[in-house]
Design brief:
Blueprint lengths: L12 E5 L2 E2 L5 E5 L2 E5 L7 E9 L3 E11 L25 H19 L25 E7 L6 E5 L7 E3 L13 H10 L14 E8 L6 E7 L6 H13 L3 E8 L11 E7 L3 E6 L5 E6 L9 H15 L6 E5 L5 H6 L5 E6 L2 H13 L5 E5 L17 E4 L8 H10 L3 E6 L2 H10 L4 E9 L9 E8 L4
Parallel strand pairs: 4-6, 11-12, 16-17, 16-19, 17-18, 19-20
Antiparallel strand pairs: 1-5, 2-3, 3-4, 5-6, 7-8, 7-10, 8-9, 10-11, 12-13, 14-15, 20-22, 21-22
Length: 467
């Protein structure tokens, strides 16, 4: 069905069937030679939609009505779904979510990286998360407003600034789901506004962390700098009284404008200086990681066990291998491999993070590791006496690996590269840049973020025999 003049234009209404999901979560349909992208759509649905943007070969549409439901639909389990911007796919059955994510990744790698579907692991379903709710070990909440209008929650779907009040989040374990409601109730009475509220704004971010191994909880409150931090002590006392497993309360300040949940200056820390998460290996061993208020750690603990084990299995290292762990964070994947190899050498540009990695190695009694504050692409920062790597592990940010670092990797010429990525587009790009010496020979994807559009990929790149 179209509008009266039967011409497709902005404002036209059409009936379409959703055929698939695009990377990023939009539904895809075809209509009169055009590809139509639709938000809030489930594959298999027949929808009545309104065209909101029209280009030569594609268009965007808004869902108006579900004419025919899909067999892939599921009932959302959160009262905030559809308004909160945190989850996109609670309305899609979990088995279908991981199927479509696997297909998206394979299609992206084939299109951008020209990686054939004959590659081992390509086209296979994504490995699902062991937990689909309560799986997160960290959640970052935003503040907005002042007084009775103050909200603690997540960005509204489709908005970069508006915050939806979230009393609890079912992606967190039960033990800490009521924390945002307690903080919001307290802050509405504090007579302090939020950082976005305007001059004199104070509250910025609430970070809730929990160890799935021990159950210990850490709360990190980030505010703007102030001559007085009078409301913090009362909030700390309230939360220690109300949250049985709360072991750490940290307060940091942040001056920078970027809206990120990281403190620039630690003002106070009450309780234990860190919580510890332990990940189990398939051989019966385990690795523990200290998590401090600003430390990076994979947000899905049970998923991280799957991800790290899959990296180890794909790498298939020899006991004599030397592993370079780039973008190593606090030890992460390299530390998980340490007992299977001769030596692990981690590289990070943050001194604080390198110190954390060294502490984690000590915690686990790992003596065959070394952590260096350096950028591998800057040869002057790298000790000359280091042994050459047999395997390089890469776990870069979404933007991928910088070109100078890729050039350095090519010059080091390890036998294998294990590339972990949360962005298949940049993984495909970097695999193409390495094709002079390396072929992507194995691939896997792991769903670390159920009900969202995000996915983790693992690629094994093997050096050509001619190289």
């Amino acid at each position: 069905m179209t509008n009266e003049n039967n011409a497709l234009a902005k404002g036209s209404t059409i009936e379409i069937e959703i055929e698939s999901l695009a990377f990023g979560g939009q539904g895809i349909a075809r209509h009169e030679g055009l590809t139509i992208f639709v938000d809030n759509a489930v594959p298999g649905q027949v929808l009545r939609c309104e065209i909101t943007k029209l280009k030569k070969r594609f268009a965007f549409a808004k869902r108006l009505e579900v004419i025919t439901p899909s067999k892939e639909e599921a009932t959302p389990f959160c009262e905030h779904f559809g308004i909160c911007g945190g989850c996109l796919h609670q309305d899609i059955a979990y088995g279908s979510q991981i199927y479509w994510k696997g297909r998206q990744v394979s299609d992206t790698l084939a299109r951008i990286g020209k990686i054939t579907k004959d590659t081992e692991g390509m086209g296979q379903d994504t490995i699902g998360s062991p937990l689909q709710t309560g799986y997160r070990n960290r959640m970052d909440f935003s503040f907005q407003g002042y007084g009775k209008e103050l909200s603690v929650g997540f960005k509204k779907r489709g908005s970069e600034t508006e915050v939806v009040s979230v009393s609890s989040c079912p992606l967190l374990p039960e033990s800490c789901r009521n924390i945002p409601a307690l903080v919001e109730e307290y802050c509405t009475k504090s007579e302090f506004g939020t950082f976005r509220h305007g001059k004199g704004g104070y509250w910025r971010k609430l970070v809730v962390r929990v160890s799935h191994d021990s159950g210990k909880i850490m709360i990190h409150v980030i505010t703007a700098p102030s001559k007085t931090h009078s409301p913090i002590k009362g909030l700390e006392e309230l939360l220690f009284a109300k949250i049985p497993n709360l072991k750490t309360f940290a307060h940091s300040t942040r001056i920078g404008r970027p809206d990120i949940a990281s403190g620039e200056r630690l003002i106070s820390l009450t309780g234990e200086p860190f919580i510890t998460e332990t990940l189990k290996k398939s051989d019966g061993g385990s690795v523990s990681y200290k998590i401090s208020p600003n430390a990076f750690f994979q947000t899905n603990s049970s998923g991280a066990e799957v991800l790290f084990q899959r990296c180890l299995d794909i790498a298939s290292p020899a006991a004599t291998d030397v592993v370079y762990d780039l973008f190593c964070g606090s030890g992460g994947i390299g530390m998980f491999m340490a007992s299977n190899v001769k030596k692990v050498i981690g590289f990070e540009i943050s001194k604080e993070t390198v110190l954390s990695a060294r502490e984690n190695a000590k915690l686990n009694g790992i003596e065959n590791s070394q952590y260096i504050t350096a950028n591998l692409s800057n040869e002057g920062e790298v000790p000359t006496e280091l042994p050459k790597p047999d395997i390089i592990v890469l776990d870069p940010p979404r933007s991928g690996v910088p070109a100078p670092t890729l050039e350095r990797i090519l010059s080091l010429a390890p036998e294998k590269i294990v590339y972990v990525s949360c962005n298949p587009s940049t993984l495909a790009r970097d695999a193409e840049r390495l094709e002079e010496k390396y072929t992507l020979t194995k691939f896997s994807s792991v769903d670390m973020f159920p009900h969202t559009a995000h996915i983790e990929c693992i690629a094994l790149l093997t050096r050509h025999s001619k190289s």
